[in-house]
Amino acid sequence: MTRVIRVLVAKPGLDGHDRGAKVVARALRDAGMEVIYTGLHATPEEIAEAAVQEDVDVVGLSILSGAHRTLVPKVVELVKKKGKEDVIFVAGGIIPEDDIPFLQEHGVSGVFGPGTPLEDIATFIRSHVSAARG
Amino acid sequence: MDKRKHTTLSGIELKASYGPEDIGLDRNVAAEAPGTYPFTRGITPEMYREQLWVMGQYSGFASAEEANQRYRYLIEKGQTGFSIALDLPTQMGLDSDHPMAEGEVGRCGVAIDSLKDMEILLEGIPFEKVRQMRTTANAIAPIILAMIVAFAEKKGVDPNGINVLLQNDILKEYFCRGTFIFPPGPSVKLAVDVVEYCAKHLNRWTPMAICGYHIRDAGATAVQELAFTLADAIAYLDAAVKRGVEIDLFAPRLYQFLGAHIDLLEEVAKFRAARRLWAKLMKERYGARKPESLALRIFAYTLGGALTAEQPLNNIVRVTIETLGAVLGGVQTLATSSYDEALSIPTEEAVTVSLRTQQIVAYESGVTGTADPLGGSYAIEYLTNEIERQVNEYLQKIEAYGGAVPCIEKGFFQKELADSAYRFQRMIDSGERVIVGVNRFRDEARSKIPVFKVDPESELRVVERTRKVRQTRNNAAVKRALDGVKRAAEGGDNVIPSIIAAVKEYATLGEICDTLKSVYGSYKPVNIC
Question: How far apart, in whole angstroms, are the C-alpha atoms of residue A49 and residue A82?
């Protein structure tokens, strides 16, 4: 039997808007995944640590404060440094379209802005995880 | 024929039409004239005929210089108030060179580390044209108060003459917005310090605006928005009264800060119900006697969460409808969102269109010519009564929990909001709730609009300035002043005078907050998801 997909939903930085993160977390859980939520104000180190401890397949980063260009590359780098090379990163929040290529260059597979149907996120994660697992 | 149930945005079921039987035969709507208790129809008899609402945009970014430029620009364009949006490190009591502040400085507001920044921020503002200067200071409200007082005194003007509105509502931060520093107990104490200090020394300021806006944007229904706001208000009012601050000394200056959502009829009813609920609460629970204590002043802000990233120009129309709802609901201050805010903080052009929207409603639409023009509509009166009834039901539940603070500590509010937000998103995904451009009438290609970018160099400038302030001030005097803050906090005294003294010595926001943290501790959030 294949392992259930494990997702870490994280709120890096100081942004306190977690309505979206919580809604996505619950939707992924309803879609049959195991979801861990870091809570607010997680440091990149805490997120990387949780990703390793929880042995997740996916890390979802929610940022609405405009700090994504600083925080996202930091988290990706730290997770990889800890030996988890195969984690899939997705991001959501208030992220201008012009910044999406930058995030992709820094290891993010999918960026989901406001208005994304929940099912699209679940489908994206399923297909990427199954591709990664071969 | 469409057999679907018709409901308001918050799920209140609507009938095909309403008549006299729906608004209760015992209720004589006509007797509730605008300007009379319980102020359902407005706080003054003449409403906007006498004075338009304050038009004040929420703005601020980068360093004090850039934010100052935008305030002056918008005042020149005819806004009659403004709001200082603070960046997240500032709101959380961190100086700009704190490791947690990296990448966040100046992003969604302006960075204020010391009195030096405040002096630059307010330089040259024509205060005679500013009917209200708001600021999103909650956990740090005592420090921002102190900085404004110190700025005014240095300039030789009376601080009480600047029309300041401090948000100073910490409770909603624990379950909606996240910019808390200390645990709820000491935080409420600090909020009441501000209320008490203002009642004595700054009696023209608004010492607190109890917020429903953020509750709504975190996923609440209109009913939850009002119920949780009132529950928070009760926590502050009880604490202030317990301390011996007389209700009629500060209640007239309070505001409620509510969201203006897209469901026009429900929102008009919500603002009307908010005033009636407040008037009864003030009279029945607190025994307030001054009419100004009973008449609720409302600041409304069009809801950020109602904006879409798809087809962004459509947001101008949404904001127009929300503006109309607020104005027909009789609010005293209004801030409007810009069409590009689902993408970034607004460009100058977008924020100007947003201000123009208010001006068109004010000067062209005709809705300002008579007070409470929708009053007496069967549907509006029914919704007003229904919202009031449901809010009271909720309040009983909250009281049974022991009030707002236990509800937050046990995660009750968080759970209720998460449930509502999830339910709402599911309705959008299933198409039950239509959002144009998002789940119906989509365009394949994304429309491109210019997006505002904060100059990344501004973070370095702010950090540099703060380092220089720390080098050039009298550090022995700063230490003495910070010791004074610590003594006041330890002794349970009102901390405001000691913070004013520290700010005047150019103690930084981070230093003052660290001092308070050493006494009060820090808050670790409850995770409900």
Answer: 8
Q: Residue A1 to residues A55, A125, A128, B48: CA-CA distances in angstroms?
A: 18, 18, 18, 68
Q: Measuring CA to CA, how many Å separate B278 from each of A30, B102, B221, B226? A: 40, 42, 18, 10
Chain A contact present for B321, CB below 8 A: no
Q: What is the pLDDT of residues B479-497, one digit of tens each?
A: 999 999 999 999 999 999 9
Please list every residue in chain A whose beta carbon sits closer than 8 Å to the beta carbon of residue B308.
114-115
Question: For chain B, what is the domain count?
Answer: 2
Does B426 contact A118 at a Cβ distance shorter than 8 Å? yes
The three-state secondary structure class of B165 is strand
pLDDT tens readout for residues B435-483:
999 999 999 887 788 888 888 899 999 999 999 999 999 999 999 999 9
Do residue B406 and residue B486 come from a single domain? no
* B156 in reach of chain A (CB within 8 A): no
Q: Does B181 touch chain A (CB under 8 A)?
A: no
Give yes or no for B457 touching A (CB within 8 A). no
CB contact under 8 A, A13 and B104: yes
> Any CB–CB contact under 8 A between B416 and chain A?
no
ipTM of the complex: 0.91
User: Look-up: residue for tokens 């420090």?
Assistant: B143
Note whether B363 and B494 are same-domain residues.
Answer: no
Q: Determine the distance in angstroms separating the CA of A20 from the nearest CA of chain B, rounded to an integer.
A: 8
Residue B449 forms contact with A (CB below 8 Å)? no
B402 and B494, same structural domain? no
Same domain, B401 and B508: no
Return the structure tokens found at B305. 């969460």
One-letter amino acid of A68 = H
> Apex CA B444: angle with CA B440 and CA B445, to 5°?
130
Among the partner-chain residues B309, B417, B527, the one whose CB lies closest to the CB of A115 is: B309
B13 phi/psi in degrees, rounded to 5: -75, 140
Is B33 within a domain?
no
For each of chain A's 134 residues, which pLDDT tens digit applies? 689 999 999 999 999 999 999 999 999 999 999 999 999 999 999 999 999 999 999 999 999 988 999 999 999 999 999 999 999 999 999 998 899 999 999 999 999 999 899 999 999 999 999 999 87
| B-proximal residues of A, 26-55, CB under 8 Å | 26-27, 35, 37-41, 43
For residues B384 and B483, state if they share a domain: no
My answer on whether B501 and B360 are in the same domain is no
**Do residues B424 and B488 share a domain?**
no
B89–chain A Cβ distance below 8 A for any pair: yes
Q: Is A14 in contact with B417 (Cβ distance < 8 A)? A: no
Domains recognised in chain A with CATH numbers = 6-133 (3.40.50.280)
> What pLDDT does B449 receive?
87
User: Two tokens at A95?
Assistant: 């992220």
Is the Cβ pair B344, A96 closer than 8 Å?
A: yes
Same domain for B511 and B425, yes or no, is no
Task: Note whether B454 contacts A66, CB cutoff 8 Å.
Answer: yes
Instruction: Return the closest-CA partner of residue B221 out of B5, B431, B422.
Output: B422
CB contact under 8 A, A16 and B89: no
CATH number, residue B290: 3.20.20.240
Residue B451 inside a domain? The answer is no
